[in-house]
From TrEMBL:
Family from the record: Belongs to the fimbrial export usher family.
Compartments it resides in: Cell outer membrane
Gene name tied to this protein: papC
Transmembrane segments: none
GO MF terms held by the record: fimbrial usher porin activity
Protein name: Outer membrane usher protein FimD/PapC
UniProt source species: Pseudomonas antarctica
UniProt main location, coarse: membrane
All copies of domain PapC-like C-terminal, residue ranges: 770-825
């Protein structure tokens, strides 16, 4: 026997629907007859429970729902419910062809699908075991499918059928740093540098233009040096069917077999980011020590990849793109005026491919130099990797122009518990300066994650090259700079605004050693990180850099969570040598503060300093530092529109320095625009629409952001081809705002501008009593909606209703019997206490259509005993 709950207080729509849905789940899909005698109502004849009359029943119509496949949210979209042909009183969700494409069905299953309603809706009977049900209480469409029907998927990775190309839009991202140096009796020197990306999205295409520049000025001097250059113009798009990325324009060769160089042309590459996370490459890390607040610039062949301000002490940059390969130039500009540079050779994990798959990279074009444009003849290159079996992969490739040829062949082996290894050999032949040079290069790579020992050899590699072996970039340099090498302006900007002149070795590479190792000692609370790069030459001095860092947490008496960290490094590059060490002991002070003592040795000098760092709140942190010859401060702010950093220092000799950086972007779509913070320029982002409601906290990647005055917020730095969630931060909502739908999920392609709206109701809350023109009240169970069709209340006994989202002077509609029946207008002046002073509202009748369903029977007991799905 089913009795409706005794209701004395008004229920919110979601709660009411949830209770009825729960009851209906137990009883099945047949009609439900409510015994209204148990209801504490003054008028039992004025009731409308038609929307709750059937278990899981949803009135025919179109609803915005979150589609969930096997319990995993996929996307939010409009879903239409139709009455089945054999049951006019019921309703069934129509799975359109567009929605079915998102299910991720295997091709063999798609071929056998059947449809109903003229081929518009999927017939789920054609997939035995498939279940579909709608739930208005949670605005969800639940689809359960046997896994045998589905393509491969992982916890945070979706098959291509569920990828979202986003919406059309424009973007402008920037990263700016300004510095001012002043020394007594000398001219002040000021400079501004930056880099960024302008872009446009149209369908699957991403158009991008990267820029970088620097301006140097002296107060009493001339205008100074000004440099602004567009480092590349290019367009790209994903090709999901090939799991590949097509790029046209100015680009860099990203190869697993050959070195990187800049060219203008086209490239079609199997995209690792479209693969499941466990098959993706290794993103390089840059580790170092800053003596003072410093600017760190990471570039490759003159193109700035990353620029940031770091506080004094050890730094570790880990958010470079995993597509970056080859040699990176790192420049550290200290606030005391000193500059040191080093190079880092990046590398990838062994070249392995999933069994039965083929990965490939194709490119053609003309090599180019950032400063000198054309740099060589038209070339072509191609490479592949074939997964022969569960353990073996075969790979190879070639690259050629009219005077250079190289071919490579190799094999990779998954050693299971012992890790993975690959070995390859490359043969090159180059005709340069009336001489033919021919040689071989051998490479061995290894990686292993020793989970049982909390250790990881991220990468270990060795390459040996014959004396006459030339890579493509070495061949190009030999053509234009001579076989003996010259000063090549391929570095980053120096302090005068010119490109940093660096000695460029031409050929002669002998051996390259690279390794990165992590090890955790959980019992000791310690972590060890080490990296090593060494390049030797046949006729030139070797270059090398190694870095070892050790950190450990420990307790001393009643003092908990003290830490000790040791960072040692050695850099040797041609005529430059630097050995450094930083020892830091940190003591927690207060809930978030840390007092640290640093002992440093760098460039042959020793220093001792004390630092205090603390977090003001979730968005603001600072650091104060003092030593025997300097004092400095560092303030970081995470904003909704941009991230800001301010650094100031005073050195011995009346030398002062002030630095400021700003990193952010702007995104414009047909749905609106917003300024936002960002770390990676031109990257993937999601615009969240809160329906015009401002100051709504939205949580996604990192610190939450808030919607602007137009109700738009952008979450940037999203991972491409990985499932992303965005949600309203319910704990920090303003008092007059509530979210009826607080979470959304999607999987975006690279560079996409995603768009999702979240149902947010803004306005006051108050009790109200509704009256029709004849003095009666709407029936018990009638629903109230605002102009945006959001549920704002359910009518209780005697026309009383608890309304939310009240906007002065706005209209709301009241519906029962399957259609809108009357309109009420809210007063301009709202009561000070809406809970005790109920609003008296008249409801003006409107023309009605035929009810969409018959009202529930109001007497007797329910007769539903079957348990069938709707």
């Amino acid at each position: 026997m089913l009795n409706a709950s005794k209701i004395k207080h008004t229920l919110r729509p979601g709660l009411f629907g949830g209770l009825i849905s729960l009851a209906g789940t137990a009883l099945g899909a047949a009609d439900i007859e409510f015994n209204t005698d148990v209801l504490d109502l003054s008028d039992r004849t004025n009731i409308d429970l038609s929307q709750f009359a059937r278990s899981g029943f949803i009135l025919p119509g179109t609803y915005v729902m979150v589609v969930q496949i096997n319990g995993q949210p996929v996307s939010e979209q409009s879903v239409t419910f139709y009455p089945p042909d054999n049951e006019p009183k019921g309703s069934q969700a129509c799975l359109s062809k567009a929605l079915v494409e998102q299910l991720g069905l295997k091709a063999s299953e798609v071929a056998g699908l059947t449809w109903w309603k003229g081929g518009e809706c999927l017939d789920i009977q054609g997939l035995p075991g498939m279940e579909v049900s709608g739930d208005l209480a949670t605005s969800a469409l639940n689809i359960n499918l046997p896994h045998a029907y589905l393509e491969y998927s992982a916890i945070n990775w979706d098959p291509p059928s569920r990828w979202d190309e986003g919406v059309p839009g424009l973007l402008i991202d920037y990263n700016m740093t300004a510095q001012s140096n002043h020394q007594k009796n000398e001219r002040s020197r000021n400079n501004i540098s930056g880099n960024g990306t302008l872009g446009a999205n149209a369908g699957a295409w991403r158009l991008r233009a990267d820029w970088q520049g620097r301006v140097d000025n002296e107060k009493e001097g001339a205008a100074g040096n000004r440099k602004l250059e567009w480092s590349r113009y290019y367009a790209y798009r994903a090709i999901p069917a090939l799991k590949a990325r097509l790029v046209v324009g100015e680009n860099y060769l990203y190869s697993d077999l050959f070195d990187s160089f800049r060219f203008t042309g086209a490239a079609l590459n199997s995209d690792e980011s479209q693969l499941p996370p466990n098959l993706r490459g290794y993103a390089p890390e840059v580790v170092g020590v800053a003596k003072t607040n410093a600017r760190v610039v990471i570039s490759q062949q003159g193109r700035v990849l990353y620029e940031t301000l770091v506080a004094a002490g050890p730094f570790r940059i880990q958010d470079l793109n995993d597509a970056v390969t080859g040699t990176l130039d790192v420049r550290v500009e200290e606030q005391d005026g000193s500059v040191h540079t080093f190079q880092l050779n990046t590398a990838g994990v062994p070249y392995l491919t999933r069994p039965g798959q083929v990965r490939y990279k194709l490119a053609t074009g003309r090599p180019s130099n950032l400063q000198y444009n054309g740099d060589g003849s038209v070339f072509g290159t191609g490479e592949f990797s074939w997964g022969i079996s569960n353990g073996w992969s075969l790979f190879g490739g070639g690259i050629t122009d009219n005077n250079y040829r190289a071919a490579s062949i190799g094999a990779g082996r998954d050693l299971l518990a012992l890790g993975a290894v690959s070995l390859d050999v490359t043969q090159s032949q180059a005709d340069v300066w009336n001489e033919t040079l021919s040689g071989k290069s051998y490479r061995l790579q290894y990686s292993k994650n020793f989970e049982e020992y909390d250790s990881q050899v991220t990468f270990a590699g060795y390459r040996f090259s014959d004396k006459n072996f030339l890579s493509m970039s070495e061949y190009l340099d030999a053509r234009y700079y001579g076989m003996n090498g010259e000063l090549a302006g391929r570095g980053v900007y120096n302090e005068n605004g010119d490109h940093q002149a660096q000695w460029k070795p031409i050929g002669g590479s002998k051996a390259l050693y690279t390794a990165t190792v992590n090890k955790q000692f959980r019992d000791l609370g310690a972590t060890v990180y080490a990296s090593y790069n060494k390049q030797t030459y046949w006729t030139r001095p070797a270059t090398q850099r190694w870095n070892v860092s050790l950190s450990r947490y420990f307790n001393v008496g009643s003092v908990k969570n003290m830490s000790l960290s040791l960072n040692m490094y050695r850099t040797l590059e041609y005529n430059y040598k630097d050995n450094g060490m930083a020892l830091t002991v940190s003591l927690p002070l207060g809930p978030t503060g840390t007092l640290s003592v640093d002992a440093n040795r760098a460039a042959g000098t020793n220093s001792l300093s004390t630092r205090y760092s603390d977090r003001i709140d979730q968005r603001n942190s600072y650091q104060l530092s003092a030593s025997d010859n300097s004092a400095s401060g560092y303030l970081s702010h995470i904003g909704d529109q941009a991230d800001f950093t301010l650094a100031a220092s005073q050195q011995q000799g009346n030398r002062t320095n002030l630095s400021m950086s700003a990193r952010g972007g702007g995104t414009l779509t047909p749905y609106g625009a917003a300024l936002h913070r960002t770390s990676s320029t031109g990257g993937t982002r999601l615009m969240v629409d809160t329906g015009g409601v401002a100051d709504v906290p939205v949580r996604g990647y990192g610190t939450p952001t808030r919607s602007n005055g137009f109700g738009k917020a952008v979450i940037s730095d999203l991972s491409s081809y990985q499932r992303t969630a965005a949600s309203v931060d319910l704990e920090n909502l303003p008092n007059n705002v509530e979210a009826t739908q607080s979470v959304t999920q999607l999987t975006l392609t690279e560079g996409a501008i995603g768009y999702r709206s979240l149902e947010v109701i803004a306005g006051e809350k108050a009790m109200a009593v509704l009256r029709l023109p004849d003095g009666s009240s709407p029936p018990f169970g009638a629903t109230v909606k605002n102009t945006r069709q959001q549920d704002t209340g359910i009518v209780n006994d005697g026309g009383s209703v608890y309304l939310s989202g009240i906007q002065a002077g706005e209209q709301m509609t009241v519906s029962w019997g399957g259609s809108e029946r009357c309109v009420l207008t809210l007063p301009i002046t709202l009561p000070a206490d809406g809970l005790t002073n109920a609003l008296q509202l008249g409801c003006r009748m409107v023309a009605t259509d035929q009810p969409l369903s018959e009202p529930a029977q109001l007497t007797g007991e329910p007769t539903a005993t079957e348990n069938t799905s709707s």
